[in-house]
């Protein structure tokens, strides 16, 4: 086994120390023997698969549900009784069919295999260039620690590594760290141990993308030891927790089954004590057991959730797991990634400071269309509402934005604009485009001759252009360009101070970069159409402007230029950078950031109104995160550091310490994937139902851990989508609010049809259990008739109740308590109360019909009871539409499905009475018109009772309010 230590903090080592630690050669790489040993010691550079439940085990698990187990027992006993009596076991077959159907529905829901690991593997590059004695291309899976890997623009990094060489190297790490802007890499720097993942500029990581430049990398980690591998490992360790609905349905099943068994035991015991017949008592018990279990409930819930997913798709929320629909209604905290979720994931230039002007810019993404709000401070007053043409300083700096730029903008078929190249340079192009300044026209006036690329030491970039004579090339920029293109030599600078510029046919150098460093290289400043010496006051003002923007978390670039009479040979320009980038003319500052989405602030406000707390969790800088959070209303002020915790602070916190501050912290900045996972778990320990949004690989473990994982559909990686429960098709945070509203509606409707179904079922159980004690020769309902009621006369109206429209104030209420019982807030008492009313009315009618002197009534007593229970459920369904409003107060056509289902189910019930074939199958008899009218009359009493209860509750609430205003 190798003695190499890979658990090193490689960013804290110099390149030479890293090479020595891994025993490799900078120029030749590893030897053949070293490679062979390390492939044995460290394995392949790939992610390990986790165990997945087999489809057979998923199918078997469906039949361990306690309600299905009870029904299986009922079917077996029913079949034994029928076969013993030499009868066809139709009841047993019907029950078995229901058991199998419910098992199939459950299997379909759970049989989706996890594909997260497969998505992670897609981030691995298939081949890579390495030094192994000579330059070779190998499969990325064959990389080992100590290999020397070469990377360049367009390459996906195949393993984690310490940079040995970096030339103008920029890497996009947003998928791993969450930051929008490209990271400038350097091989020379060494960082402290506590440096965050996003700040380790001397490292590259597997799965990230090289945007610009080239580099030589010492491979330090492969496979599951990489940062990507750590994400995969965390995903494997995250266990799926049952949703609130699953917990409630489990609780409901236990109550129904054990209550049913207790009731059966009482009826059989009391019956035998009174000398009853065992076979009859068993038939009674079977009917009771079937009546207690709402066989149609699992199917109704599944269909309800499926309908909810369809409605959510129309609102741009794609649900991957049905249980997530209801869980959304219980969400108390939304932990949102910043980049691409709360923001546009596009750098947007929004503030410009020129020597005399403040310019605020509005626009969307990279679209070169927007508005400028320009103000000029003249010393004694401020002029506003100026146009771009009235501001020559603005034209100057926007010209620099365009010519000192290697990106270009592209519009797709859908009209969406994107930046090809560095996102920051794309933002500068769109900024100029909003002022009508186009690169195609400028490139004619200012053709580029040479470039001095950005370096981390100089922190700036320069281009050399030829300024063509105005006489030869008339253009809208010529007057301003003539001013900044003026040759300013030391000999005549004083003499021409403050004088207008004249035409020039010289070369121009445009420079952009760190404001402090560029300002230090400037000795002049461009004010309107004049070039003046820069003084101490000018410098102090510019630094104040820079600090003002930086304190708001805005990235700031400084711009300058100068003209020169002659150029050194092109190949020598880079060697003369120190001379060419001195004695510059200051043009101004541009502030840019990953701007918030325009609709998110309103969505955050709605969340807070609905009792849902938004929390920002990002890998970005603390100041940037806090500024965005303040803009969106997540925090009260961008200066409110008390609500912010950094990843470095999290590192030193124990879990109890994190729990103590988790409910007060609204912004987490500079966090790693492990931190995100800890935050979600902390909130869950505190009883919060957490929705986590994100789009990057770094979000995947937290997405899987959260009660609801929400991935971005447009910018999201495959990894985040596979780890999620829901995908936002439009990447719009506001869609989460719509989804939460839909989730609340779904849960409200689930409670609505549960009270409808169980209220009816209790009435059935009471009616059946009363028959032996009333001296009746048989139970009034057969198992097959009960199945008909539970599946058809209960099921169809229940489905219609599932699409009842949302109540107007549903987003003004606090979230549902995830720990509450399904019977909470009076639902259990309602079910018992209405069930007793159901039972008493039916028992009264049953006793009257059986003991009637009319032979027809005596003969039809079972069909009368069966019909009354079925029709009474129709009135109950209509009354269940609202807990407080009377039926006559509701728009009857706001839920046309309920009206249709009531009419259709009533017709089906009548068919069972009057269609001969159905009569024989269900054991019914045709009723006379009088008997049918009595059935409808008794059934109507349930509707009247529920409506009267609403009036009493309303009167009591008003009376209490008057006494306690």
Automatic annotation (TrEMBL):
InterPro entries from the UniProt entry: ATPase_P-typ_cation-transptr_C (IPR006068), ATPase_P-typ_cation-transptr_N (IPR004014), ATPase_P-typ_cyto_dom_N (IPR023299), ATPase_P-typ_P_site (IPR018303), ATPase_P-typ_TM_dom_sf (IPR023298), ATPase_P-typ_transduc_dom_A_sf (IPR008250), ATPase_P-type_domA (IPR059000), Cation_transp_ATPase_P-type (IPR050510)
Membrane topology designation: Multi-pass membrane protein
GO biological process, one term: proton transmembrane transport
UniProt keyword terms in alphabetical order: ATP-binding, Cell membrane, Membrane, Nucleotide-binding, Translocase, Transmembrane, Transmembrane helix
Matches recorded under NCBIfam families: ATPase_P-type
Identification of the protein by name: Cation-translocating P-type ATPase
Subcellular location(s) per record: Cell membrane
Domain of life: Bacteria
Similarity-based family: Belongs to the cation transport ATPase (P-type) (TC 3.A.3) family. Type IIA subfamily.
């Amino acid at each position: 086994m190798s003695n190499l230590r890979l658990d090193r903090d490689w960013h804290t080592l110099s390149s030479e120390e890293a090479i020595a630690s891994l025993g490799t050669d900078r120029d030749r790489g590893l030897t053949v023997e070293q490679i062979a040993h390390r492939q044995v010691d460290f394995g392949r550079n790939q992610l390990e698969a986790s165990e997945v439940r087999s489809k057979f085990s998923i199918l078997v698990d469906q039949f361990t549900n306690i309600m299905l187990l009870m029904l299986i027992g009922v079917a077996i006993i029913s079949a034994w009784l029928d076969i013993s009596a030499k009868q066809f076991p139709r009841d047993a077959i019907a029950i078995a069919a229901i058991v199998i159907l419910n098992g199939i529905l459950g299997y379909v829901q759970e049989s989706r295999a996890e594909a997260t690991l497969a998505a992670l593997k897609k981030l691995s590059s298939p081949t890579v260039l390495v030094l192994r004695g000579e330059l070779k291309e190998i499969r990325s899976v064959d990389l080992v620690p100590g290999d020397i890997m070469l990377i360049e623009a367009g390459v996906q990094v195949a393993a984690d590594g310490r940079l040995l060489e970096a030339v103008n190297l920029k890497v996009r790490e947003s998928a791993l760290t969450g930051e929008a802007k490209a990271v400038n890499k350097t091989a020379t720097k060494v960082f402290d141990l506590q440096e965050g993942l996003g700040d380790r500029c001397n490292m590259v990581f597997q799965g990230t993308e090289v945007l610009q430049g080239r580099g030589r990398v010492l491979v330090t980690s492969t496979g599951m030891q990489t940062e990507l591998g750590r994400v995969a490992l965390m995903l494997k360790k995250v266990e799926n927790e049952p949703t609130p609905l699953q917990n409630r349905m489990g609780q409901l099943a236990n109550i129904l089954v054990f209550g049913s068994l207790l009731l059966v035991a009482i009826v059989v015991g009391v019956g035998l004590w009174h000398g009853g017949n065992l076979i009859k008592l068993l038939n009674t018990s079977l009917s009771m057991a079937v009546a207690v279990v709402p066989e149609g409930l699992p199917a109704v819930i599944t269909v309800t959730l499926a309908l909810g997913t369809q409605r959510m798709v129309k609102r741009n929320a794609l649900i991957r797991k049905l249980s997530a629909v209801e869980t959304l209604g219980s969400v108390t905290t939304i932990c949102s990634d910043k980049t691409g979720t709360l923001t546009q994931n596009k750098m947007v230039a929004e503030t410009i400071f020129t020597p005399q002007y403040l310019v605020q810019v509005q626009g969307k993404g990279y679209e070169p269309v927007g508005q400028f709000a320009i103000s000029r401070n003249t010393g004694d007053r401020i002029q506003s509402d100026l146009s771009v043409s009235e501001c020559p300083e603005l034209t100057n700096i926007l010209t620099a934005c365009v010519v000192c730029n290697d990106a270009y903008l592209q519009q797709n078929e859908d009209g969406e604009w994107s930046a090809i190249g560095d996102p920051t340079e794309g933002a500068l192009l769109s900024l100029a485009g909003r002022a009508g300044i186009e690169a195609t026209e400028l490139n004619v006036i200012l053709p580029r001759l040479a470039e001095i690329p950005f370096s981390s030491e100089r922190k700036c970039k320069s281009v050399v252009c030829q300024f063509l004579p105005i006489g030869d090339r008339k253009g809208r920029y010529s007057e301003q360009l003539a001013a900044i293109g003026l040759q300013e030599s030391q000999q005549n600078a004083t003499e021409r101070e403050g004088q207008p510029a004249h035409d020039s046919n010289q070369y121009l150098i445009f420079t952009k970069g760190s404001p402090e460093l560029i300002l230090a290289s400037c000795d002049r400043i461009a004010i309107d159409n004049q070039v003046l010496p820069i003084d101490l006051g000018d410098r102090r003002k510019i630094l104040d402007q820079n600090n003002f923007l930086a304190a708001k978390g805005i990235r700031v670039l400084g711009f300058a230029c100068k003209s020169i009479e002659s150029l050194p040979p092109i190949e020598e320009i880079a060697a003369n950078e120190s001379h060419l980038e001195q004695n510059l003319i200051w043009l101004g500052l541009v502030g840019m950031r990953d701007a918030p989405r325009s609709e998110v602030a309103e969505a955050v406000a709605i969340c807070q109104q609905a009792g849902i707390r938004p929390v920002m969790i990002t890998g970005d800088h603390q100041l940037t995160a806090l500024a965005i959070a303040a803009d969106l209303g997540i925090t009260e002020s961008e200066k409110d550091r008390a609500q912010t915790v950094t990843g470095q602070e999290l590192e030193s916190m124990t879990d109890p310490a994190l729990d103590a501050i988790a409910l007060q912290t609204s912004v987490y900045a500079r966090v790693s994937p492990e931190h995100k996972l800890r935050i979600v778990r902390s909130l869950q320990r505190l009883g919060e139902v957490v929705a986590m949004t994100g789009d990057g690989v770094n979000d995947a473990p937290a997405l899987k851990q959260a009660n609801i994982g929400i991935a971005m559909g447009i910018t999201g990686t495959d990894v985040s989508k596979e780890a999620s429960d829901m995908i936002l098709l439009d990447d719009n945070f506001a869609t989460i609010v719509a989804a939460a509203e839909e989730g609340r509606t779904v849960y409200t409707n689930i409670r609505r049809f549960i009270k409808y179904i169980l209220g009816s079922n209790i009435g059935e159980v009471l009616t059946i259990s009363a028959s032996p004690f009333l001296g009746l020769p048989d139970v009034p309902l057969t198992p097959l008739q009960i199945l008909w009621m539970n599946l058809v006369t209960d099921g169809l109206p229940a489905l219609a109740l599932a699409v009842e429209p949302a109540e107007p104030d549903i987003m003004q209420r606090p979230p549902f308590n995830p720990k509450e019982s399904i019977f909470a807030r009076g639902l259990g008492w309602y079910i018992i109360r209405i069930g007793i009313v159901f039972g008493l009315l039916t028992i009264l009618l049953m006793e009257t019909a059986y003991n009637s002197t009319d032979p027809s009534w005596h003969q039809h007593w079972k069909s009368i009871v069966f019909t009354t229970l079925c029709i009474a459920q129709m009135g109950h369904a209509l009354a269940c539409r609202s807990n407080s409003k009377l039926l006559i107060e509701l728009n009857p056509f706001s839920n046309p499905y309920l009206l249709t289902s009531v009419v259709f189910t009533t017709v089906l019930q009548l068919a069972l009475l009057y269609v001969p074939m159905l009569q024989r199958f269900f054991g019914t008899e045709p009723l006379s018109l009088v008997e049918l009218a009595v059935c409808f009359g008794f059934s109507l009493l349930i509707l009247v009772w529920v409506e009267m209860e609403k009036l009493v509750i309303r009167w009591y609430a008003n009376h209490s309010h008057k006494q306690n205003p």
